[in-house]
Structures are given as structure tokens and as C-alpha cells.
Amino acid sequence: MKEISPSILNADLFKIKKIFKSFASANIKSVHLDIMDGVFVPNISFGPMLIKQLSKYKKNLQFISHLMIINPERYIEDFYKAGSDGIIIHQEATTHLHSTLLKIKSFNIRAGVSINPSTPVSVLEDVLDLLDEVLIMSVNPGFGGQKFIEHSYQKIEKLVTLFEDHDNENIAISIDGGVNINNLPKLFNYGVDVAIIGSAIFKNKDLEKTLSEFNKITERR
User: Whole-angstrom Cα distance, residue 163 to residue 70?
Assistant: First the structure.
């Protein structure tokens, strides 16, 4: 089943309770939490403490924490205890990808790996059995509102083929960066399961209407 997952990086956190209610009304299943350290990416966002506070309002929403940080293995337990239902780490940010994924799995939550635009999907071949999700970055990570990198379509195709060749077609494919109402249908057609959407949702004042427009696309898949 296809779905959208709002990234709240650009959301007004003072209105988060109302925003989460809108998510529930729109049948949103997961919320994407972008964690940035100012080292791996040129920006700083938030950490486990804020996620713990947001967890008070999550109800049935799944919190997927996307760790854009160096050596994420140091903080897996912290983000789990804060309320993360899944953790995505970057292949480029950890020396021992296999052991870091095992650590995530030890908490019985979803484990995912993200790859940057310049990273080939082949680097994931030896850890497919540990993955619930692969996140393709369709912009260079660090800032919202960037333009979608067109080569990402080819990466999705290669990832679909990789899964088929290794009988791992149960792994979800997600994409993050420059996703909007215009390219979402094509992304779903290429094989994306979960579309991470930030600016295209929160730049519009009418949140409910915007979510409805995106949901019309997912419902046709």
C-alpha cells in the first residue's frame, strides 16, 4: 500500500497538537523526524528530548526517526526510548552498518538505511536481510525545499531490481526530498511505497486540504 509520511522539520511546533490531529483525520500512518547534527549535514535540528515531548500527542502515529548524524550507533537506544517506532540511519555515516542495524533490530522496531544521491544502491546488498526500509535521498540532505534530483528515478528502478534479485521484495522503498503533488504519481509508479513530504505540505496554509489532495493520489494506487 502506498502512503505519504509528513516530515515535520518545517512544521510550526507550537501547533503540533493540532497538526497531529489533522494527520489522524487524514489517516496518516507515520511521521518523519529529521535529526541533523550539523556535521554529517550542514544543519542542526532536534534530538531525543523533543521526540519524547512530541510522543505525548502521537497516539496511533508511528514515529520514524531519520538520523542524519555521524556515528548513529551511539544514540540508537536514546531515540528508541524517546518514542521512535523506527530508525533510519545513513550508510555513509556509520563504519559498521551491519552491527548498527542489528542494534536497531534488538529493540524490535523498524530498521532502515538511507543513501545519499551519490551513493549506489549496491552498497546495501549485504544487509538486505536486516532491512525493513530503504530511504533514497532525492536531494542532498540538510535542508528542506530543495529541487528533486531526476536521477532518483533510476535509483528506484535499480533498488527494485536489487530486491527482486535477492527475494527481498517485502522491504519498503521510501524517498525524501523535493516530493510534491506533481511528481508523486510517477514516484509511486516507479516503485516507491512511502513518500516523505515536508515543504510541499507545510508551505500551504490549509493543511487539511493539502493532505486531502495528496491522499487522493495514494488512494488511486
Answer: 27
Which three three-digit cell numbers place residue 151?
536521477
Q: Residue 136 burial by CB count (10 A; 0-12/13-18/19+): exposed, middle or buried?
A: buried
How many CA atoms lie within 13 Å of 199's alpha carbon, on the beta-carbon side? 12
Find the catalytic residue in 12, 34, 85, 167.
34
pLDDT in tens, 168-220: 889 999 999 999 999 999 999 999 999 999 999 998 889 999 999 999 899 87
Q: What proportions of the chain, in percent to the nearest 5, are helix, strand and coil?
A: 45, 20, 35
Domains of the chain in sequence order: 3-219 (3.20.20.70)
Q: What is the pTM of this model?
A: 0.95
Residue 17, classified by CB atoms within 10 Å of its CB into exposed (0-12), middle (13-18) or buried (19+), is exposed
The DSSP annotation for 117-140 comes to TTS-GGGGGGGGGG-SEEEEESS-
pLDDT of residue 126: 95
176 is annotated as an active-site residue: yes
- Please identify which of the residues 85, 132, 167, 176 carries the catalytic annotation: 176
